[in-house]
Write a structure and sequence with these properties.
The protein has 201 residues and is α+β, with helices and mostly antiparallel strands. Helices cover 54% and strands 17% of the residues. It has 3 domains: 47 residues, Ubiquitin-associated (UBA) domain (Helicase, Ruva Protein, domain 3, Orthogonal Bundle); 92 residues, Tetrahydropterin Synthase, Chain A; 40 residues.
Amino acid sequence: MTVSVKQIKELRESTGSGILDCRQALEKANGDFDKAVDVLRQKGLAKAAKRADREASEGMVELYSHANGRIGVMVEVNCETDFVARSEGFRDFAHEMALQIAAVSPRWVTDEDIPEEVLEHEKGIARKRYQEEGKPDHIIERILEGVIEKFKDENCLMRQAYIRDDELTVEKLLHETIASLGENIVIRRFERWELGEGIDN
């Protein structure tokens, strides 16, 4: 199928992908714009995986204050070069991560960062609750797997639904950004503070 220059331009403006990638995606999708976006997304994930082992030591620390100073966020996002660190796309991504952290309060970047004792504690609470409800032990163990997965989804930044599109996780958004900017990007660490946190009443 022949695709028009206009279609390629529209797809490029929408996704930030290269002209050749856009043409190939449209040809593969028989000219269907939405399917072409999906093709580019899938390709982006593959590109992101290839770039994951490249060192990312440049970047920025994004600071964000929300609700008239009631919530503050500091997040470090790294990339490979100073050139990309200064780009609008990279800075927008870092800002979006600060907004995400302010809005959804994750505790860790990835599920690998969760201490084992925290997971065991969560399991213990859930196990006791289901035992009190009279559920059999073999059923409880299966339920606990789901409880822990939900806990990770809610508390790990990379597993959370993106605040602007709940069909997209932060991890998928990261991979799309890596594909768009052409460099490895790493969300290194973050801190979130809320006014009055930790004060004993």
